[in-house]
Structure formats: structure tokens, C-alpha cells
Amino acid sequence: MTEENVLNPVNPDAVSEAVSEASAEIAEAAGTIAEEVTEAVSEAAEETADAAVDFTEAVTESVKDEAAEAVDEITETAEEVTQSVTEEVADSVAEAADEVKETAGDAVEAASEAVEAAGEAAEAVDETADVVTKAADAAEENVTKAGDAAEELLAETVATVADDDKLDELIDEAVTADKEEPASEEAAKAEEAEAPEAVETEREAEPPVILFKNVHKEYEGQIEDSVALVDVSFEIQKGEFVFIVGPSGSGKSTMIRLMMREISPSGGNIYIAGKDLAKLRRRQVSKYRRNIGIVFQDFRLLPDRNVYDNVAFAQRVVGAPKRDIPKEVSKVLHLVGLSQKYKSFPNELSGGEQQRVAIARALVNNPMIILADEPTGNLDPQNSYEIMSLLEEINRRGTTVVIVTHDREVVDQMQKRVVTLQDGVIVEDKKGGYIYG
């Protein structure tokens, strides 16, 4: 500042001009700085971009190299694995081939032996054929005659089964025949009355139809072993009517199951019609049961078959001749009083009628023994009486009847032989009523 300005007062114009000049200088300096900064930033950005591109290219090249190395390693490993697997498979195939060759050799040897055996069998067949030929020549005439007769019977049977009217005629014939039977029964009773001692002596001479000797039955495999029968011995003669009674759990059902050969005793022996049941083979059991008619409390009828077919089914099971089935079924249906209901189904019958069908089914194969397990258990008193009367009539015709029951009134009324069980032991065996309790 000049001396003049110091000594003189401030000049506003001069100050303003100085400020303007200073501002212009500052603005120019700022512009210059901005340009320099911008240029520096641009250069830095270009350098950064170039560095990024270089880095990316370097990374990409590195990744490609590493990937190529990995592919080479994987390929090499795969080739090694393939070679190893191929060698193992080849070894397995070779071993299998050796086994097949060995097996084939055994098979060839066995086939040779079979051929040799077949040759020997062929020689035996030739020898047998000569005998068969002679027998066939001798039987040819009889076979021809039998074939003609069989064809006639078969035609008659087919016509009978197919024709309901013919079946009705058979039933009528059976009814007529049965109506004539009482006369012969009366004659038989008269003969028996004339010589009662002789008849009784003859019965005693026959072996018992049912014989238990020291029979013991114990059920094992439960929480505690259960003893059903203890040293039971008794016998039933042919033609007897016997009740087996006792409280629940006394062994009654076990006794019936033993007679059916459904189970076997733990000890002792059971003989039915002279056969030792313990010696029956499994395939012989069904044949044995054909001599026994079984009547159950719940009837066990086939619901989808009518009365006739339910009874005929028992005949077909044992292989009865087809021509005889209509006659036998008609006869037993008449005996049980159901001749007019042979076309009815079980659900169309009362409980008493269903039990009659069950009895007819048990009778149709003419068994020597009827086993009835609570046959009146599901019936009212009137039907119970009728069923027992029917079983008594069957007994009078010569069939042995054994009945397991709780029905005190029936037992008291019938006054037959009563075998009473308690805790697996026979406590009473005599003719009369229900003594237990």
C-alpha cells in the first residue's frame, strides 16, 4: 500500500477493483486445478481399467490352465479305473465260465445216468406191456359192456339232476318208501322183544365202537400248561346214545376233538371202530372221518347253496356215484322232515330247520357214529325237543350217537346214558339225568 493510501481515507472503488482482480485470479487458479485434477483422474481411471483387463486376462489364463490340468488328471484316473474294472470283470467271467463248464460236465454225466436208467425202465415197461396187453384183451369185452351201462346211467343221472320234476318224483318215492319202513321196524322190534337176551348177548360180544384207555390231554405253550383230560377211560358200544356233560372247562369239547382226530392225546390210546387213532397217517384222517357224522352248534351250512346242494356236497366230497346222490339226499331230507324245502337257502330257514339240514348232511354218508357238539345250543325249547327226537330216531336205526351238551332239561327228559366230566376226570357214568350241580 502506498503512502498516499495510508495517509488518505479508503477508496471503495479501489477495494472493489482489487477484490474483483483477486476473484478472477482465484477462479482462474481453480479452473486450472480442476482441469489438472480431471486429467489426473482420467489418467488414473485409464490406468485402473488397463490393470483390470490385464488382471482378468491373467486370471482367465490361470483358470484355463488349472482346468486343463484337472481334466487331464480326471481322464487319467478314469482310464485307470476302467482298466481295473475290465480286468476284474474278465476274471469274474473266466471264473463263471469255469463253473459253467464244471456244472455242464456234471449235467452231462447225470444225463448219461438218466439215459441208462431210462433204458432199463423201457425194458421193464416192455415186459409189463405184454402183461397189460393180455389183461386188456381179456377185459375188453367186460369194459365194453360196462361202458354201455355207464352211459345209460349217466344219461339218466343228468336228466334227473336237470329236471326238477324228476327230483320231486324221487323225493315222493323216498317218502313212500319211508312210509313203508315202520312196518319192518315194528317187525324188527317184535323179533327183538321175543329174544331180548340174545340181542343183548350179541351186543356185548361186539367190540366197543369208541374206546378211551387212560387218555391224558395237556395243552402246552400257554402261560401255564392246561390239563384238559386226566387218565380218562370209558367205552361206548355200537348203537348207544350217550350224553357227555359237565361245567365249562371240564374237558367235553376236548373229548369230541379227540374223537374227530382234530387233536391227539398227550398219553393213552383212543380206538374208534377198532382203529387206533394214533396210528392214522395224515392222509388217512379224511377217510376215517367219512365214518363219522358231525353236527355243530352253529350249523356251518354253505350260505350260497340251497338245502339240496348243502346235503349233496357231503356226498360229492367222498366221491359218491353221481347217479346215487339224488336218491340218498332225498331219503335223508325226508327223514329230517325237509322234503318240501330242498330248494330253500339257509337264510330262508329257521334255526331248527337249519340244524335239521346239518343233521341230514351228517347222515347222508351213512356214518356209524354221530358226534353232536351242543346241537341245541342256539335253539328254543320246542326246536331242541324236536332235534333230540330226531337224533333218537336216528339212533334207533342203528347209528351210535354221542352228544356234548349243557342242556339240563334235554338230558333229564331223554334218560339216556350220561358221562359226567369235572376238571378233566369222569366223576359219573350211568343212565339217568344231569347230575352235576
Count of β-strands: 10
Query: Could you name the CATH class of the largest domain?
Result: Alpha Beta
How much of the residues is beta strand, in percent?
A: 5-15%
Q: What string, H for helix and E for strand, traces the elements in order? A: HHHHEEEHEEHEHHHEHEHEE
Rg over C-alpha atoms, rounded to the nearest angstrom = 54 Å
Strand order of the largest sheet: 6-7-8-3-9-10
- The CATH topology annotation of the largest domain reads as Rossmann fold
Main sheet attributes: strand count, strand direction, barrel closure: 6 strands, mixed
Q: Averaged pLDDT, please? A: 75
Structural class of the secondary elements? alpha/beta
**Share of helical residues:** 55-70%
Low-confidence stretches: 128-167, 174-185, 187-202
The fourth-level CATH homologous superfamily of the largest domain is P-loop containing nucleotide triphosphate hydrolases
CATH architectural type of the largest domain = 3-Layer(aba) Sandwich
The span between the termini is 155 Å
